[in-house]
Automatic annotation (TrEMBL):
It is a peripheral membrane protein. GO terms for biological process: response to antibiotic. This is ATP-binding cassette domain-containing protein. Belongs to the ABC transporter superfamily. The lineage of its organism: Bacteria, Bacillati, Actinomycetota, Actinomycetes, Nakamurellales.
């Protein structure tokens, strides 16, 4: 996969604070890359440098083979940027916003309908942006960032402040954009969002990348036991304790919870006893990876 973005030894200081402290990563063409970390980790600063909106103190960045700083007008038609706070032209409808962005980029109006459809706002085309819900406004702002059909899309915390349903709708939109071949770089402080959407994530904390890789690989590398829960009426605690592969058992609130490093042994044993009612299997998540790396609970 060709590298669409390269970042090498990036540093940005604000006075004594190293907001970005020696960050390096690459993003391949068509990749969905996430920069994940708690508030103040340095995600936005990093992204804004890559977008060409901020000057780094040191380090090198290329986007599509070009240097984004000083402001590189050759890159502007090729990248789409959605900033953390979306701002629209006042009192325009959703369609008029998109038409305005289309005109700025010299794009024909036919893209407007396509974009409204992509972000599921066709039925809100005539609604003024001030009257859109938070999720609808976020989707419109993504449509504006995509109107000129850029190759690379940067999204800064696109699902911040959205309710769970709106977040899921947004995820569908982002998946669709990525399926159309766009390279996406997204910052988020939602671990689940990064885990679900991203091919690879860089976990940032205090200006540094602590770990980078495919979410499933990062979780697998932890090599932690899984917890298998079934209803206790099918499987009392003492029966569970005697099953092969079981490390520990806890019975609580009608559930028997089995901790095991050998789920492939425990699950068939449960199936043999017909004890699969309410089955849940909980593995580790990126939150556990963060805890493992920092010794701190993840608090976005
Ligand atoms: N213009 C600035 N001047 C001084 N300090 C800044 C400036 N911008 C950011 N910072 C500081 O740099 C650090 C990194 O901020 P940044 O916004 O990049 O983090 P973030 O990971 O994007 O956080 P959030 O999720 O809250 O947006 C923070 O401590 C922030 O207070």
């Amino acid at each position: 996969m060709a590298d669409t973005i390269t970042v090498q030894d990036l540093v940005k200081r604000y006075g004594d604070l190293s907001a970005v402290d020696g960050v390096s990563f690459t993003v391949g063409q068509g990749e969905f890359f996430g920069i994940l970390g708690p508030n103040g980790a340095g995600k936005t600063t990093c992204l804004e440098i890559v977008e060409g909106l901020r000057e780094p103190d040191s380090g090198t960045v290329t986007v599509l083979g070009e240097k984004p700083w000083p402001r590189n007008t050759r890159l502007l038609p090729r990248i789409g940027v959605q900033l953390q706070a979306s701002s629209f032209f006042e009192r325009l409808t959703a369609r008029e916003q998109l038409e305005t962005f289309a005109a700025i980029y010299g794009v024909g109006p036919s893209r407007v309908d396509e974009m409204l459809e992509l972000v599921a706002l066709t039925d809100k085309a005539k609604v003024q942006t001030e009257k859109l819900s938070g999720g609808q406004a976020q989707r419109l702002s993504i449509a504006c960032a995509l109107i000129h059909d850029p190759e690379v899309v940067f999204l800064d915390e696109p699902s911040a402040a959205l309710d769970p349903q709106a977040r899921r709708n947004l995820w569908d939109v982002l998946r669709e954009i990525n399926a159309r071949g766009k390279t996406i770089v997204l910052t988020t402080h939602y671990m689940d969002e990064a885990e679900i959407l991203c091919d690879r994530v860089a976990i940032m904390d205090r200006g540094k990348i602590l770990e980078m890789g495919a979410p499933a690989d990062l979780v697998r590398a932890l090599d932690r036991p899984v917890v298998i829960s079934v209803e206790s009426r099918d499987l009392p605690e003492d029966t569970a304790t005697g099953l092969p592969g079981v490390d520990a058992v806890v019975s609580t609130g009608g559930w028997t919870e089995i901790t095991t490093t050998a789920p492939a042994v425990v699950l068939p044993a449960l199936a043999e006893r017909g004890a699969l009612t309410g089955l849940q299997v909980k593995g580790s998540t990126l939150e556990d990876v963060f805890l493992d790396l920092t010794g701190r609970e993840y608090r976005a």
